[in-house]
Specification:
Layout: E1 2-4, H1 10-22, E2 26-28, H2 29-34, E3 41-42, E4 46-52, H3 60-68, E5 71-72, E6 76-83, H4 90-100, E7 104-112, H5 126-148, H6 160-177, E8 183-185, H7 194-198, E9 204-207, E10 210-213, H8 222-226, E11 232-234
Parallel strand pairs: 1-2, 1-4, 3-5, 4-6, 6-7
Antiparallel strand pairs: 8-11, 9-10
Helix pairs in contact: 1-5
């Protein structure tokens, strides 16, 4: 089984490509987390976890959900992390999580995808984003082959910088940066409520047809990037920046890789 968490659609795309290629079932963690569902999941022997990278590790909301969920039948687990630049030393933390769940850790793959964290960085325009997605194809294909044959993913070299990123920087990232108070909707907001629907933590509610943010946020950028009116801002940091949402690229989300392998 392939399980995924996704804010703007990158990890969803990668997960669908892998699930289609391996003919595996697909499970959206967003839906489970949103409904506080940590009930057992029947996975089969192979478990593939596809997630975005938050401060050089998998999102805490994901590791918390995995930690509380029983994966019935799972023996081996592979991790794929979509990112804008790198995943640091994330694999060592994924290994610890695997061991905690009693699963054989088969490694972590880094999949470069378009940047979406507009609270801090700039997202690429559509044409550049399309090229980044196409360039990710060979890396996804290599992972599919490894999983199909039950092989470990290649170990990634990680220096002091990567260890600092996934360790100290990650520990600082959440208490210092992951806050929802800077989000607001401007006068162009139509009150459609899509931000409420896509928030995996139920942190957005509507008040007088305007969204209001609570204190439970994971900075997935789903609300701001999925807003059809582009009415949501994150303080001044997002003003004037292009939004990134995979579905707006016009790329087919499904499709089988390596049909003849």
């Amino acid at each position: 089984m392939v399980v995924y968490f996704s804010g703007s659609g990158n990890s969803k795309y990668v997960a669908k490509r892998i699930a289609d290629s391996l003919q595996e079932k697909l499970l959206c963690m967003n839906e489970r987390i949103k409904s506080s569902d940590t009930g057992p999941v029947k996975t089969g022997e192979k478990l593939v976890v596809v997630v975005p990278t938050y401060a050089w590790r998998i999102p805490r909301v994901v590791s918390n959900w995995i930690g509380q969920t029983e994966f019935v039948g799972a023996k081996n687990v592979w991790y794929l992390m979509s990112c804008g630049s790198g995943i640091g030393n994330a694999d060592i933390y994924n290994r610890k999580l695997s061991e905690k769940k009693g699963l054989k850790h088969m490694g972590t793959a880094q999949i470069i995808m378009p940047e979406n964290y507009i609270a801090m960085f700039n997202a690429p325009d559509v044409e550049i984003a399309k090229k980044i997605v196409v360039a990710a194809g060979p890396d996804i294909a290599k992972v599919v082959l490894a999983i199909r044959h039950g092989e470990h993913l290649p170990k990634r070299k990680c220096g002091l910088g990567g260890r600092m990123e996934s360790g100290l920087v990650n520990s600082v990232f959440y208490p210092v940066f992951v806050k929802a108070k800077a989000f607001y909707a401007d006068q162009t907001c139509t009150g459609c409520g899509k931000c409420v629907k896509v928030c995996p933590l139920n942190n957005v509610t509507m008040n007088n047809k305007k969204p209001v943010w609570g204190k439970h946020c994971t900075h997935c950028m789903a609300c701001i990037c999925h807003c059809p009116a582009e009415a949501i801002e994150y303080g001044r940091k997002s003003v004037g920046k292009p939004r990134y949402c995979f579905e707006n690229l016009g790329i087919e989300e499904t499709g089988t890789l390596l049909r003849n392998q």
